[in-house]
Amino acid sequence: MQNQPSTTVNYDCKYMTADEAVKLVNSGDHIFVQGSCSIPEALIAALAKRGDELRDVILYNAFALGRRISPLCNPALKDSFLIDSFFVSNAVRGWVNAGYATTTPRFFGQVPQLFRDGSINIDVAFINCSPPDENGYVSFGVSADLTPAAVECAKIIVAQINPLMPFTYGDSIIHTSRLDAMVEVHDPLAETPDITPTEKELRIGQYIAEHIPDGAVLQVGVGTIPNAVLHSLKSHKHLGLHTEAMTDGMMPLIESGVVDNSRKQVEPGRSVASLALGTRRLYDFLDHNPSILFRDIAWVNDPFVIAQNKNMAAINSCLEIDLSGQVCADSIGTRIYSGVGGQQDFVYGSSRSVGGQSFIAMLSTTSRGENKIKPVLTPGAGVVTTRFQTNWVVTEYGAVNLRGKNMIDRARLLISIAAPQYREELDREAFNMLGYAYRRWR
């Protein structure tokens, strides 16, 4: 969005305290809560104080990294507020798995459609914004994702005005004339530490980097393994970014010119993201940076938009995978850990890209030494990427390509990158499942 010519903007009358602003919420309302690292925590705290007055208020959020457990996660408020998360994260994970909150399964890129077609009504939007510029525009900063659709559909918009929020460009801008209430805060954004990858994680990164050509367009997930891939791309040239999340690991590649977006077909010359997760250094890097666009998640994660970029490389992680190639990335058995996010959107989009490929990366074992390549998924585990879509699978023991492979070859390839102590057991289980052909055809 381009700023309009400078005009005198009078929005002083919209400023109020958080306690005054949350009085706009009524029992039975549906509230959108902005996510990423920018939960409007002052508004949530004020809303929690109204718990005795309210009933049956539903709050929707997506990936929302909190600096603390949400104050709404309180048994005394169980009849006042129901949290419904599209991607379960630290602020509400325990509350969901205790049975007091819930989650709505949906590809991240398709959530805005639920708002726009009325499947989910939004009465109030709680957002966290930068201070207004000289023309009265504020920015959603590090969290465009669902916010453009939410503010488009909400009847009431309540904004925290936070000088610690960077001003970003794209779909992340709204004029103060559209805000119903403005609450001044000085509230640090949640941060995710830039952890140095381990030797095993760097090995995974190197395996993936070997298969990424110069000029590729990257989508890179969040976590130490995706970060290890970024560490391994320093000698590449003319890379582009069309990614769901902007992270600290991307900054060195942009600053050094490895990422110059020169060979992209979609928004050439500029990095595209929908949200950011990182440290204060990343947020300062994004502030008033016109080379980075924050766009509506419905557009960023649209597989048909993604596919317009040639040599699209989607890099994501998972919790476990079975010998047929089914990928679980959102739950540990029946316990919800996170969400689908954009993994499937980018796996599918990259499969339609000319020269595109996708990578599912993980350490071969858990922190407790348990095998993550399994004969079948743990009972209750959700399938995020189906066996029909899985392309490359990478552990510290190598990278295997399942594209076009039958069930016998898939099992053998995946066993070859499992932790050595589990390979014999997996081989026996594969024979039990696949029968004579598994032993005969090699």
Query: What is the CATH class name of the largest domain?
Result: Alpha Beta
Question: Which CATH architecture of the largest domain?
Answer: 3-Layer(aba) Sandwich
Structural class: alpha/beta
CATH superfamily of the largest domain: Acetyl-CoA hydrolase/transferase C-terminal domain
Q: Give the DSSP E fraction (strand runs of 2 or more residues).
A: 15-25%
Helix content: 25-40%
Our count of helices gives 15
* Total of domains: 2
Strand line-up of the largest beta sheet? 4-3-2-1-5-7-10
Tell me the total number of β-strands: 25
What would the keywords be for this entry?
single chain; 442 residues; alpha/beta; Glutaconate Coenzyme A-transferase; six-stranded mixed β-sheet; 15 helices
Could you characterize what this model shows?
By secondary structure, this protein is an alpha/beta fold. The protein has 2 domains: 12-184, 3-Layer(aba) Sandwich (Glutaconate Coenzyme A-transferase), CATH 3.40.1080; 199-437, 3-Layer(aba) Sandwich (Glutaconate Coenzyme A-transferase). It contains 15 helices and 25 strands. It has helices spanning 18-21, 41-49, 93-97, 111-116, 147-153, 199-209, 224-231, 251-256, 280-286, 297-300, 303-306, 343-352, 407-416, 420-434, 436-440, and strands at residues 30-33, 57-61, 81-85, 102-103, 124-129, 137-139, 156-161, 169-170, 173-175, 181-184, 217-220, 240-241, 245-247, 271-273, 275-277, 292-294, 312-317, 320-322, 327-328, 331-332, 335-336, 357-361, 373-374, 392-395, 398-401. It has a 7-stranded parallel β-sheet with strand order 4-3-2-1-5-7-10, sandwiched between helices. Helix 6 crosses helix 7 and helix 13 packs antiparallel against helix 14 (420-434). The radius of gyration is 22 Å and the shape is globular. 52% of the residues are buried. The model has no long low-confidence stretch (mean pLDDT 93).
